[in-house]
């Protein structure tokens, strides 16, 4: 008998070693000034999380029709530390992170590049930590949508940032699972857009700055008087005028300024003998300079950028025990007013520096006090805050309850799919066996490893009581009741099901779409088989078509439902009076509604279902008797007649004539444009331009798209199949002879159908090679040709 595969251990609690990787989409490169992005990345790496740090430059591939393999060939990797890799992605153009926006082709090439990274390193569960809104179109395009936005600055305050880049920030904040902010000012602004925001201030690598024992750097070794020092960016927010005024007033002080001076007018201090512009210094050398400082300063001007900043250098200055003088910054007043001299004018700043120089030698305990503050604000502490946030908001503990009664082959297949290498990283699986008489009990008893726990009942308690027993053993924040005759896909199905529960307290229960379910969770177009479940190519297309979509419902099929455990405890266990099964799901949905909660179908989550594997083994008369008894019990309990649930949400599902198609069209969204797309006759797994055009059209809220194609991922299209919320595939163009289109779009096809009627005809010139369009134009003289390089612009123009 095939053994269970990939059994892994999982401890309970928010501090457990939940396995996940980090992809960092940075604002600065790894080898630039050593700041929060690199410090936190190193903390994750030290604790066993692999970190993939994306470089700020990209490989430019100018070819518009480059294939996926060609793009992926140019992706670069470089290991720079234990568990840390630098990754250079590919785009269509060279991109400036602070000035440019990605276009459609950039996003496609970047997405392929990132998918290549995930495949090459077998990345399964990961968190995208985004430092700059520039990356928003890429991270939101990925199917595994775990985003943490690290909001470190008021980006509008940087003169190098273009306004279009800034506009991406609100979208990023809204899409992120959790938002980190480095200051109270940022936190107050961000939490209005995303309540899952956490204040995580900066910190210091205390051992790096506190333990210096070497000699002073050469530039400072011969100075005998006081050294007033600063390191960091010297840009337009740095008050160089303040430095010049003090340097002229106090020629006996030496001002050592370390950092690039891009964006700062330094001509006024360049000729002053007591001002040293030392340039950028490596992170490894900074402690030597800092230990020679007699006073460390933070001379920032007052603007929106500096008012929102929490300076990393503050923690590093204090780690070295140095006295600090700063201009007024809200963060310093909030967290270090008893350790930092705050000066609000040039005269007050100079006086504060003089005061610290005169009293520092007489107060050795002050240095210990500063170091103690730094010790309680290390990057290790900040990692713990981030890890807890990730476990709480992205990978909360989930308890999956499975009830079995015989059918070991189905149970084994279900468990193997749950325990695959890319499984959800923080789960427990509770298997309740209802008196199986085949090998199920023996096989389950052999499972001594977590995360699988087994509960054995000597008798068949039934579906309702078995699930309730399993739920009573659960320790997760969320429950998933899962039939044993299911095959779950990659790890995304769990986060997708629980996310509505995380975001809306009035939603108690969610369910996925499936190939086999007795209500409108059923899909009418599915590619897969009983061995592997969903076809991987079809699944990726399905995810893309339905990305982020949910809809409210009054009924969920209990082949797979996710429930917030607190709601389950409030509503109570399933009704045991339904015996071995049937109608208990209808009943529980009524109880959820009665308790004032909502239920939603998560349309971009999918679970394969064989369908009633256990109940089907009942004899026909026994099955019918059970159905009638439970139906009667349900109707008497709720004082209502049971209604047959709706089927798949495809208005064309049973249409076999043009007349029926015309009548079914009335069920489409009123006011939407009806668009026919005529591309190639085979939809492939390579995202050709015409397929991208279809997807862009189908994502619009104002149109329904019909695509004429004969095969989809090498499988025949028969009739009219629903592939997305507003996307339909058909191999029967004749069925639309009585259907009126608002727009027919030619994107590769040269065939003109006389029976098709449209108000307008458009053609995408980029889908035709030289000489191909002429014959089409001669047959269809009213067609409008567009030569837009970007798919999105073509869509906009064709609807103008």
Note the topology.
Elements: E1 21-25, H1 36-46, E2 51-54, E3 59-60, H2 68-72, E4 76-81, E5 84-88, E6 90-91, H3 104-120, E7 126-130, H4 136-141, E8 147-151, H5 163-175, E9 178-181, H6 184-190, E10 197-199, H7 206-210, H8 218-221, E11 227-231, H9 240-249, E12 254-258, H10 267-270, E13 275-279, H11 286-292, E14 295-298, H12 304-307, H13 312-319, E15 324-326, H14 330-335, E16 340-342, H15 346-359, H16 364-375, H17 379-393, E17 398-404, H18 408-418, E18 427-434, H19 440-445, E19 452-457, H20 463-472, E20 478-482, E21 486-487, H21 493-503, E22 507-513, E23 528-529, E24 533-534, H22 536-545, E25 550-553, E26 560-564, H23 565-571, H24 584-594, E27 598-606, E28 608-609, H25 620-638, H26 658-664, E29 673-678, E30 682-683, H27 689-698, E31 703-708, E32 711-712, E33 715-716, E34 720-724, E35 727-730, E36 740-746, E37 757-764, H28 773-779, E38 784-786, H29 791-799
Parallel strand pairs: 1-2, 1-7, 2-5, 3-6, 7-8, 8-9, 9-10, 11-12, 11-14, 12-13, 14-15, 15-16, 17-18, 17-20, 18-19, 22-27, 29-31, 29-36, 30-32, 31-35, 36-37, 37-38
Antiparallel strand pairs: 4-5, 20-26, 21-28, 22-26, 23-24, 25-27, 32-33, 34-35
Helix pairs in contact: 1-17, 13-16, 27-29
């Amino acid at each position: 008998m095939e053994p269970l595969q990939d059994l892994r251990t999982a401890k309970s609690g928010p501090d457990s070693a939940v396995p996940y990787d980090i992809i960092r989409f940075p604002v600065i490169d790894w080898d630039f000034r050593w700041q929060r992005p690199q410090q936190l990345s190193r903390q994750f790496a030290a604790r066993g999380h692999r970190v993939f740090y994306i470089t700020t430059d990209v490989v430019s591939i100018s070819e518009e029709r480059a294939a996926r393999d060609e793009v992926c060939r140019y992706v670069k990797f470089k290991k720079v530390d234990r568990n840390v890799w630098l990754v250079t992605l590919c785009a269509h153009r060279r991109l400036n992170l602070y000035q440019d926006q990605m276009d459609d082709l950039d996003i496609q090439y970047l997405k392929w590049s990132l998918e290549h990274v995930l495949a090459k390193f077998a990345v399964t569960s990961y968190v995208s930590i985004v430092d700059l809104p520039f990356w928003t179109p890429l991270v939101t395009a990925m199917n595994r949508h775990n985003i943490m936005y690290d909001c470190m600055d008021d980006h509008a305050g940087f003169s190098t940032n273009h306004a279009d880049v800034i506009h991406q920030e609100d979208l990023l904040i809204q899409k992120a699972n959790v938002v980190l902010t480095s200051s109270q000012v940022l936190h107050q602004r961000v939490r209005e857009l995303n309540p899952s925001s956490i204040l995580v201030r900066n910190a210091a690598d205390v051992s790096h700055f506190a333990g210096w024992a070497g000699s002073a750097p050469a530039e400072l070794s011969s100075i005998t008087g006081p050294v007033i020092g600063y390191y960091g960016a010297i840009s337009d927010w740095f008050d160089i005028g303040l430095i010049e005024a003090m340097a002229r007033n106090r020629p006996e002080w030496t001002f050592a300024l370390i950092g690039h001076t891009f964006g700062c007018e330094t001509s006024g201090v360049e000729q002053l003998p007591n001002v040293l512009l030392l340039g950028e210094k490596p992170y490894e050398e900074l402690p030597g300079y800092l230990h020679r400082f007699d006073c460390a300063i933070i001379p920032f001007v007052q603007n929106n950028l500096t008012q929102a900043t929490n300076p990393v250098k503050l923690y590093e200055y204090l780690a070295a025990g140095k006295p600090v003088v700063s201009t007024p910054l809200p963060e310093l007043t909030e967290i270090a007013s008893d350790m930092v001299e705050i000066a609000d004018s040039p005269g007050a700043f100079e006086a504060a520096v003089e005061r610290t120089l005169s009293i520092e030698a007489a107060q050795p305990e002050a240095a210990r006090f500063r170091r103690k503050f730094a010790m309680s604000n290390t990057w290790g502490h900040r990692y713990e805050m981030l890890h807890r946030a990730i476990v709480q908001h992205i990978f909360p503990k989930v308890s999956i309850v499975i009830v079995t009664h015989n059918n070991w082959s189905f149970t084994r297949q279900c468990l193997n799919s749950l325990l695959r290498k890319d499984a959800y990283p923080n789960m427990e699986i509770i298997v309740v066996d209802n008196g199986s008489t085949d090998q199920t009990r023996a096989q389950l008893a052999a499972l001594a490893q977590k995360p699988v726990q087994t509960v054995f009942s000597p008798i068949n308690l039934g579906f309702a009581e078995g699930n309730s027993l399993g739920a009573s053993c659960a320790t997760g924040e969320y429950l998933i009741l899962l039939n044993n005759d299911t095959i779950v896909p990659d790890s995304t199905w769990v986060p997708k099901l629980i996310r509505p529960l995380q975001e809306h307290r009035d939603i108690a229960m969610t369910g996925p779409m499936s190939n086999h379910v007795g209500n409108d969770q059923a899909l009418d177009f599915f590619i897969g088989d009983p061995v592997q479940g969903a076809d991987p190519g079809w699944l990726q297309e399905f995810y893309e078509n339905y990305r982020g979509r949910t809809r409210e419902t009054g009924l969920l099929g209990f082949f797979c439902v996710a429930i917030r455990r607190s709601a389950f405890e409030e509503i109570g266990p399933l009704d045991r009076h339904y015996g071995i099964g049937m109608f208990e799901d209808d009943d529980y949905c009524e109880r959820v509604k009665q308790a004032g909660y909502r239920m939603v179908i998560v349309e971009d989550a999918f679970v394969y279902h064989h369908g009633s594997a256990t109940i089907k083994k009942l004899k026909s008369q026994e099955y019918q008797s059970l159905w009638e008894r439970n139906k009667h019990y349900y109707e008497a309990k709720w004082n209502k007649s049971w209604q047959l649930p709706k089927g798949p949400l495809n208005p064309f599902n049973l249409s076999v004539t043009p007349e029926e198609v015309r009548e079914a069209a009335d069920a489409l969204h009123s006011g939407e444009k009806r668009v026919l797309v005529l591309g190639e006759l085979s939809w492939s797994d390579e995202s050709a331009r015409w397929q991208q055009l279809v997807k862009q059209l189908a994502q619009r809220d104002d149109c329904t798209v019909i695509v004429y194609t004969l095969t989809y991922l090498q499988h025949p299209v028969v009739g009219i199949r629903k592939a997305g919320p507003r996307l339909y595939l058909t191999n029967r163009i004749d069925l639309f002879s009585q259907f009126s289109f608002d727009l027919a779009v030619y994107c590769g096809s040269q065939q003109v159908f006389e029976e098709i009627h449209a108000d307008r005809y458009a053609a995408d010139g980029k889908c035709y090679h030289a000489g191909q369009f002429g014959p089409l134009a001669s047959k269809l003289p009213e067609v409008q040709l567009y030569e837009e390089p970007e798919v999105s612009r073509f869509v906009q123009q064709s609807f103008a």
